[in-house]
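B., you asked whether I could sanity-check this one before it goes into the benchmark set. Here's the sequence:
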Amino acid sequence: MFVHRIKTLKTENATIFALPTSVREVVSWYGSFYSFPEGDHPDPMLLQELMVAMLDKGTLYRDKFVISDELEKRGAQLQLFSDGLRIGFFGRSLKADLPAVLGVLGEQLNTPQFGPEEFDKLRLQTISARQRSLSNTRYRAELGLNHALYPENHPNYNTPAEQEIALLEQMELEQVQAYHQKHISANQLIISTAGDVDPDGFASLVDQVFGDWQVENRTSTFATLGNINPGKTVTALKDRQNLDVMMGVPTPVTTQHPDYLALYLGTYILGGNFSARLMNTVRDEQGLTYGIGASLSGVTQEYAGYFQIYVTLSQENLERGISATKEQLRKWVQEGITESELAEKKTTIAGKYQVEMATTHGLARAMQQNAEEGYPLDMLDEYVPKIEALTAEEVNRVIRQYINPEDIHLSIAGTLPESLNR
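And here's what the prediction gave me:
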């Protein structure tokens, strides 16, 4: 059992979960801390994105090319990423190289170079990426749904690309540096590691990287609720014959909610993989689309997310595809899942979990995700049994309780057929 093999260590400002395995010489790790991207800027999420992207552009002691060579010659990996309310990092190296690679991580987090030329280059690259997204039907359909469901002060709200471009054009390096000074601190700093790792030695290295970080007990001021907003958003784009369609509704279910696993399993049965119900019916039987699926999105231990369906349709099949998808949604809610669907997807989810846990990378990521979602360590052992214990009655109850087809918001992006323009 994982719970008996994982050692939990507490440093002055971090919690470490370390799992020694039989894999020799290789160590993987994930870590994250709350950054609370609020209040510094009209779009603090964007400011955080730029700040994190600048961290691997060199430090006060080594430029980015020297760091790249340092990692490459060791065959090591090291990445930093912005993840909503948290900033995260991932690494993998040989055991002997762990001090050197964690040393690079410490330099990147604590003493970034923030060079003006690198900032200008990154800013222009980000503007270019946002400009390309303006003509992306999937992005525009997602944005239409996002704005229908969430207020601007909710962490699941996404700023329109046009506004982000305007903000990026005015963004200054000093704003990024100020964000770094204010938001890099030990707010619920969690690190998970697996492989050929000495837990106490790893904790000592972590203390060298993060030991000076101050513990701050800040709390989020974001709004907590989304909006049930039935209706339709249409985003007209020129010369986009394939349209993307999003359907969704917020739910009150966080990862800590007692109904989360049942709602996740029910949604997976509807549209979680290539053998799910939406693929079998709307795609394979009716031939109306190539891509369709359903998922829960934006769900954390603090914030409930939303249920969504996505489908890509041609102009010719737009109306029939939407109608067929809504019909499957209604049948899923009113008639529920079947015992055979439940058994099949339990096997799929259990298999995916076992494969994930077969590598040091997968183990470290699973331990980190488990901690960030607010679960105790024994959830790593209980996850599959909890999924397998769910009954069709439980899954159908939560589907009917949280998903009302009449509350679904519809968002369409692309070139509408003439029949819908009249």
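One thing to flag: The chain is about 45% helix and 20% strand. Otherwise nothing jumped out at me.
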